[in-house]
Amino acid sequence: MKKNLLKAGLGAVIVLSLGSVALAQTPATPGGQVPAATNKLDSEARGFLNDAAESGHMEVAGSKMALEKSQNAEVKQFAQKMIDDHTKVGQQLDALAKSKGYEPPKDPSLVQSAKLKALGLRDEGFDKAYADEIGVDAHEDAVKLFEKASKDVKDPEVKQFAIETLPHLQQHLQAAKNLQQSVTAKTK
Questions:
Q1: Which residues contact 179 (CB under 8 A, 6 or more apart)?
Q2: The pTM of the whole model exceeds 0.85
Q3: pLDDT for the residue 187
Q4: Domain with 103 in it: what CATH number?
């Protein structure tokens, strides 16, 4: 009887040890990302989430800069709305991506970072550059990105996120165009 208990106990220890070894063998990825084998998204959905996250980070960073640099109340009001709205959408995007086993970027892309750096160097003409680059250009790109995703992405939850967010981005684009006209009129 003691032999049978000892064999059963040893068998259980071996089985549990093998499970631990298998878990320890799971390769770690930089940045703590989930290994590709457990990632639940195809490359198109990951690409969309990646680009959308970077775009949102750029708009928030550029808008924070506008709060610091601009003296125009209309620019500051628009910038604060962009910070509030894009932060909220960014949190939703993060939660969705993480539920799918994907860790989205936490910063703008390198190209977007360079644009932000150039924008930050402006003093004269900052408001117009902000309205043009962060307001209109960035939102035109975002609208195109979300329109494409709302049609082409196969993952139903990611597609729904794109569909639900798109009208807000279109409203931002229209508000940005209005801001652009107002700022341009003041510089003439």
A1: 74, 75, 78, 131, 135
A2: no
A3: 76
A4: 1.20.1260.10
